[in-house]
Amino acid sequence: MSRHQDKFEVIVIGMGGMGTATTYHLARRGIDVLGLEQYDIPHSKGSSHGSTRVIRKAYHEDASYVSLLHRAYELWEQLETERDERLLYKTGSVSAGPPTSELVTGATEACEEHSLPYDKLSAGELSERVPGFELPDGFEAVYQPDGGFVDAQNSVVAHVERAHAHGAEIHGREAVEGWQSTTDGVRVTTEKGSYSADRLVISAGAWTGELVETDDFSLSPERQALAWIQPEKPDLFSIDSFPAFGVSDGENLHYGTPVYGVPGVKIGRHHHFEQDVDPDEMDREPTDRDERVLRDFADSYLRDGAGPTMGLKTCIYTNSPDENFVIDRLPNHSNVVVAGGFSGHGYKFASVVGEIAADLAADGTTSHDIDLFSLDRF
Hints:
Layout: E1 7-13, H1 17-28, E2 33-36, E3 52-55, H2 65-83, E4 88-89, E5 93-97, H3 102-113, E6 119-122, H4 123-129, E7 140-144, E8 148-151, H5 152-165, E9 169-171, E10 176-182, E11 185-190, E12 193-202, H6 208-211, E13 220-229, E14 244-248, E15 253-257, E16 265-269, E17 275-276, H7 288-301, E18 309-319, E19 326-330, E20 333-340, H8 350-363
Parallel strand pairs: 1-2, 1-12, 2-9, 5-14, 12-20
Antiparallel strand pairs: 3-8, 4-8, 5-7, 6-7, 10-11, 11-12, 13-16, 13-17, 13-18, 14-15, 15-16, 19-20
């Protein structure tokens, strides 16, 4: 292997959605940055592969995320312009369930607090507007027109391509074995050599916990499964007629996106079977049980949407203890930034997380409000 240097201003470990965005933002500022990834770029063993990720401003998890989403949208659109490629699709978003469910009440509160346009619809009214849905009587839906999805894998590629254009060096298939502080920064050891830098960003998805040794918090990788199910009436589920969605039955939350990139409507169940896993040992092959629970949702809630299964895939959530993100400098290593624990709802934020992590690595602080993501909450 040839390389032209082994000393950088910043090293970023992990070239998934967050790491590639961070590398791009650092390189765009003229910072000499190295990105390292143990697998291919992109790859299918983590959390950033596949065709779509839901993006929505009606955010039930915590309304404080919404201000970050405004910036995330701006940055996705900036990347689209630089790349001359569409990455963000505004199909609208639907948050539906029993009127008292956290999904519906939280989405309503977020829209009200941040003056977002929205419509509150009964099950029947939603079916009139979006004929592909068939919700039970008594359900309510929050329709927010700014929602939609991000083209996930192409966004990783776009961040890499633009990072390269701004001078970044990025290595795939080079696993990190460890890192240590030095008198003037950090040294990162890989299976192929070692590199020094002034500062380090660790954004390695399900492997982040292995690289951040601390008693303050822990990250829990969790197996997730997804299905793509071909509609019997495809026109009802195209990007022009069907929104990104989250539907709660009061017990489980299912989510998905319209047909895009590959055949079928994408359907997942949040926290699927709640299976904590070792990311190096997990069973990545989808099962009949995975398929059955996702098809049950389509049978129950999507009118003319439950045709043949087109595809099944697995991925990984990396959960923090409270399911809020972890974005902070390490207490005993102020030149090391960790960005992890995105808990199954992070990808939509990748563009702005990259900006925040770059801020922390370059300047030690950020203008974004990230109190919710600080390590000291643990």
